Predict the structure.
Amino acid sequence: MTKPKIDLDHICDLAKIEIKDQDKKKYQKNLDAILTYVQKLDELDLDSIDLETKNNSLSPPLRIDENSSPLKTELSTIIKNAPAWQDNHFKVPGIIGDID
Amino acid sequence: MEFETVIGLEIHAQINTKSKMFCSCPTDFGHTPNTNICPICLGYPGTLPTLNQKAISYAIMAGLALNCQIQKHSVMARKNYFYPDLPKGYQITQFELPLVLNGFLELNLNQQKNKIGITRIHIEEDAGKLIHPEQTAFQQKNYSLVDLNRASIPLIEIVSEPDLRSAEEARMYMEKIHQLLVYLGICKGNLEQGNLRADANISLRPQGATKLGTRTEIKNLNSFKILEKAILAEVARQTELLTTGQKIRHQTLRFDEAQQKTFAIRTKEATHDYRYFPEPDLIHLNVTETQIQTIKNEMPLSLESKKEIYIQKYNLNEFESDFLLTNFDALQYFEKCLSLNTNHVPAREIAKWIVQDLNALIKESKHNFSTTTFKQKHLLILLDSLQQHKTTKNIAKTILKDAFQNNVSPETILQKQDSNTITDVQKINEQIQIVLEQNQDVVTKIKNGKPKSIDFLIGQTMKATKGQASPDIIRKIITEKLGL
Amino acid sequence: MKKLHLLTTIELNKLLKNRTITCQQLLHSYLENINKNEPKIDAFLEIYKENALTKAAQIDKLYDKGDPLPFLAGMPIVIKNNICLKNKKITCASKILENFVSPYDATVINKLEKNHLIPLGATNLDEFAMGSSGENSAFKITKNPWDFDYVPGGSCSGSAAAVAAHFAPLSLGSDTGGSIRQPAALCGIVGLKPTYGRVSRFGLVAFASSLDQIGPFAKTAQEAAHLLSVIAGHDAQDSTSAPVPVPDYAQNLGQDIKGLKIGVPKELFETGIHPEVKEALVKALELLKKQGTSWEIISLNTIKYSVAIYSILAFAEAASNLARFDGIRYGFSAKDAENLDELYKKSRGQGFGDEVTTRIILGTFSLSSGYIDDYYLKAKKAILLMKKEFHEALKKYDFIVTPTSPTPAFKIGEKINDPIAMYLSDLATESANYTGLPAVSIPCGFTKNNLPIGMQIIGNHFEEGKILNLADRFQQLTDYHTKMPEFLEEN
């Protein structure tokens, strides 16, 4: 495996997480150190390992389709935890361009 | 240059279960926003998903009905992306190893039978709903509102091969899938409530070519009409581009009904990197041959077989048969009637009354065939009376309406009629005489070979006797009098 | 009589049953100790004083009635603050959840309730359980009770320190790569990571779903056994929990250990091990040998790759699990966001600490298009290889024994700027998470500077009883687990 350099801007956009400009260097350094270390896995012979081997053990029993409510939740707690709440909805800044 | 249209459809159908895909929250529509929720479907920290058994069974049933291969080993996966209607920041779906693979649906278009390939069927959870209120002059910033009632409702996604060749065929395919899912009870099929939606993948290629052209995807088409219109619009757009030597860009589009055109969706997520990986909280889904057989045995007969029985065995006409086969509740009502039908009322009769008179009454009411209090046994008693000429068709219609609207059983009404029956033959005779004299033309009709018109005379007599004379007796007397 | 908070639960159980003491008296003893010494340790994020007193009074009534009660009834227990308690703040030691209140109890909390244990407080941790020293908490740094300049280990820094400092006899923590065992070793107590699926994860804020397990802290194997029986068991709400019956682990202790075979992987013994740790381990193994067991050096080559695997697999699952913290339904939400994209990026950027951010970035990278094969899938393959290797070893040996941590506790600030050095603290413990095997750390010595040294015993799947049995036998022959940090001697 070739050791790449992490495209910090792209990954931060994918992960929706903001890093201050002054910290970018420090992050890049740490990430590079870890990525370098991780190349170690190349030492292992993994060619014969098949990830597709089917797990034949029984699936756990599935949940019966009914409306029991083991986690009945007070709406007040939901509202208390909600950062922005309006007209019985969670409120978010406007979305430009719909997806679905 | 002649172009061939190539279409593939991805249909998302909400599975008709009582609880959500990964938690026990109710799935019924129309509740106050954010009331059918719990920490699990809200994506609260520490919560874990549990698979809905019925959703799996229904997905397998859909696969069997579409001639597919049920995969005994399949894997749930996480599709990672950020959007406010997706509480966990990932959707639990299936990716590389879905539950169902490789089937087909037969379409009958313009006398030609076509097998439309089904690539795969998998299960996943629905997202919540976003509302974008209009920005007003008074608002500084715009905002959107999130309702998570719909989040985690079970969905099956049916993906077709790109085997459809026209907007019309695509529409027919969507209608047939809709009918099938409703018939099997898998999906409620209410398009206005969003129970079923389609994404269409469209590309063009020169006639005779085998390589696929660049495709575009129109998302979220939620009616048969809109699907057809959207595809036509997109085909027109692509044709225009190609004939002027331009290239088609692989884009995601939406259809604007008002402008009857497709528009590209402007989104930053142009490169969708969903980073799929197997869901560690659920891992594998193993289904046994026994489980599949059980579902197969408990499934209703195929639509085709059912239609054949209705038409050949029960003598229903196309209209009646189609009505029942596209209305799950009415079909169940009908079939229950058949099972309770000890007095051998002809199946055709039962169907006719369900499809016409009862259906009309139900449409006006707040109920449907599964919630109405006018039960099957009531209908059968009424029809049995009619069979035995204890009442006439018109009177039966009145009794039906009366019983339905006033929540009284037809038996009660019939009994009342019986108890008020005038058995004094003399009195009846007198009335009949009057009716015959007043309706000489009808008498002539009857004598000239229209025996059914006797019903009219019976009706008139019943009217005159305020329904208190037994129709049986009236019929006997008139028949005698006219020497029939 | 010794102060109540210095007694074991075994002794306390007797005293409560015969009403020599009450639950309230016991609780007061702990509260006094906490009052006096918590400022030195900083183990707690919150103390549930009122709730605990109310509960203690209720349980006293039960004891007074005389009906048989579960063994641990009336025992205070402290809970790592990433396990959900209803109506309590569950912060995960992160700014992003600083004011988050959980609307439900974790399954293990329900089980504690049924057995009449008394949750006494929420303990500090590395943010979102990511760390090996306790220094990644957004709120405070917990100190090692044996020397306040040293780390207690992580991520269950508060839980381990609280039990070592006698703030409570028992604690619950979570272990993803060693987070229970490593701080247990550094604090001189017992910490156990159960077999994957033995204990329900429902209500544990997820870090790496295929590795996480909730487990007990105590001063002795016997007490850990009691607590394990309380929390273990199948849970329909956790599809990864195992439908395996729960034995009475404490009842089954006392089995003979003669003839049992121990394998010690050279990869954790010959290199990278602190000399005093090695010395203590050998002494312990020889002591067990005198009791009829045998030990020898074996090779488990894949252990060397534990940290590399962790940096990919654990971080990838974590990146996905932490996507739900987006400032919309709960948690910190950036007020200066002008649009949705900013809401996400600022809420998460400002809410998460540096280590969490690093792991999210790396985890996202490992799953991203173009890299997923070389990273995520490669790590998964390495795990399969490791599973095979351990499976073979456990066919020949009853236990795999290693030092829990290659070094004793290190100074606060010593490794914080060297991520790899920090990650290597878990080199010995991570393999039990990948393989899903049960593993317990027990005290087996002290350094010249009076810092505890821990020994890890790994067994086969669902053999918690067997490893606890060996641990218990060892504790009957030694007194490391009875030693107390200096500041408590002043009591």
